[in-house]
Amino acid sequence: MNISGLLRRCHLRAIAMALLLVAACTSKPASSNEPPGGKWSGDYGPDADHRDPVTLELRWEGADLRGVVGAGPRSMDLSKASFKPETGAISLEFDAQGNGGQTVHYTIEGKVEGNTMTGTWTRDAQRGDFRVTRQ
Questions:
Q1: Those residues with Cβ within 8 angstroms of residue 32's Cβ, 6 or more apart along the chain or in another chain
Q2: pTM of whole model > 0.90?
Q3: Superfamily grouping for domain 30-134
């Protein structure tokens, strides 16, 4: 092979590598591309041994995220909801009725990655985690 052929092959490889690097730098993870609408189901609890089933139905109304949390026979409307597509971060809040009839406020902080949402929940002094999957 002559020098000119060798230089041409090196030049083509350099261009191909540059295009691959540009493509890798501009791609985003799946969690930032897909809004978290739809039906989700999974579990939540204070630790690995104490888990309860939970469902979540999310819908977009214009630019607003709305939804309902289902735990056992109870269904609670979200009072606040936000989603940051660039990071996949999701925040949800809702109120439930406690055993004594008092209102209990839940705060959920999580992350959406593809068809999975994971994170933490708090209510009063209790904390735990959750994991739900899009149906």
A1: 85, 86, 87, 88
A2: no
A3: Quinohemoprotein amine dehydrogenase alpha subunit, domain 2 (2.40.128.120)
